[in-house]
From TrEMBL:
Keywords: Lipid biosynthesis, Lipid metabolism, Membrane, NADP, Oxidoreductase, Transmembrane, Transmembrane helix. Pfam families: NAD_binding_4, Sterile. Its EC number is 1.2.1.84. It catalyses: a long-chain fatty acyl-CoA + 2 NADPH + 2 H(+) = a long-chain primary fatty alcohol + 2 NADP(+) + CoA. Residues 19-256 form the Thioester reductase (TE) domain. One of its GO terms (biological process) is long-chain fatty-acyl-CoA metabolic process. Catalyzes the reduction of fatty acyl-CoA to fatty alcohols. InterPro entries: FAR, FAR_C, FAR_NAD-bd, NAD(P)-bd_dom_sf. This is Fatty acyl-CoA reductase. The lineage of its organism: Eukaryota, Metazoa, Ecdysozoa, Arthropoda, Hexapoda. It comes from the Eukaryota. One of its GO terms (cellular component) is peroxisome. The chain crosses the membrane at residues 322-343, 435-458. Residues 327-418 form the Fatty acyl-CoA reductase C-terminal domain.
Amino acid sequence: MAQEPDRIAEIFNGRTVFITGGSGFLGQVLIEKFLRSTNVKRLYLLLRTKKNKTPQERWNAIVENMLFDPLKKQNPTALKKCHIIPGDICEDNFGISPENRLLLQNEVNFIYHSAASIRFDQSLKTAVRVNTKSIKTLLQFARECKQLLLLVHVSTSYVFHEEEVLLLGDYPNTYTYSKALAEKLVVEQMDDLPVIIVRPSIVCPTWQQPICGWINNLQNPMGLFVAAGKGILRSAYINVDCKADFVPVDCVISAIMASTWNYLNHSKQDRFINMTGPSGYIFTWNDIFETCKRINQTEVPFNWVIWYPETFTLKSKIIYKIHLYLFQMLPALFIDGILAILFQKPFFYQIQKRLHKGIEVFEKFGTKTWNFSNSTVGKIREKMNIKEMETYKMDGEGFHLRNYLKNCILSIRRNNLNEHDDTLPTAKRHLMVMWIIDFIVFKILLVSVFVFYCYKWIFSPIFEG
């Protein structure tokens, strides 16, 4: 394997790449992969000012993340290849200065467009402005790049470009609808513009590269699993038999780079690449919830859980609503009442409202099985040698759900929640206390109350009669 060439890395040797969305989850992993696995000449990264931080200040904070630690050890000077281009995809011409625009037009060989607003609950106007309108600007910019070899547009599997009529009601949310509109714009120019579309399904933390279980935010389903592990989320409305179509982000990045190589060296016809859960590794959302629950209960608890983690996955929306109000909303109001008496700011009810909103947004994905074809990825993989298949892993061979989720939870503790490993013994002791309280309150007290009222209302009149 060591003697085999990495032909995918070779196409980037000495070439220049322009990346939008470099501060996002997928964008950061893409940047790291380029710097670690290729000899790319330069990466131009479009970043905007945000929360009073300049683009350069934001980039300096990004590279301090643990994601880049292996790269810094392997090649400390690699980050010098990154050059920040101040701009914003929502502005005309991306807000890029004339000098920088000319620089990019003369140098860029590859464009990777991963910038997007991934909020599922935003207004249609905002979603279209960020995810659709920006594509028009990007396509025009791509035509101006004199050295362009390929534009890669990162979309989502939950769009269907072949539909002639796009109706909002046919899509899970405004995000997927706006991405579908964006795809149509790209497809219209495919005949005379070198462009491919990569469509990942639900993108989850890293599996293997460069570290296990890394994610930079909790806005995807992992946020719900963390809330469940903290004892805050007690019920979830999902179809327990519904397939969970998720894909680790490092597999998506590998597919993006391998698809680039395939387009340049093998097939100009493979323009749409679905990157979803690999065949042969089918899990349900219930599998994931239950596995996360067992890990939190037995191996990796979070610090200071507010209740023993026990989330009920419910297929009935009516029963879910009952659970929601009995075991989440009412206890939250009770805790907030105590906080108000103690002159503290109430916040538990607002947390529960946000969690409920998250479950509603997740509903279309957790109550329906989506069927996608990964045939193009399969064809590309057949052209790769052993070294390339290892470096750019796109299949699920060797994937173990429990190990993967355990690594995710450990990484989230360390990186997202700042809960260090030396706090695990304390977390386990606290969890035992929560188990005792949960057992006394729910397993004994509530059952006793139920039996008492059954006797009082049902059996007592019979005996008295």
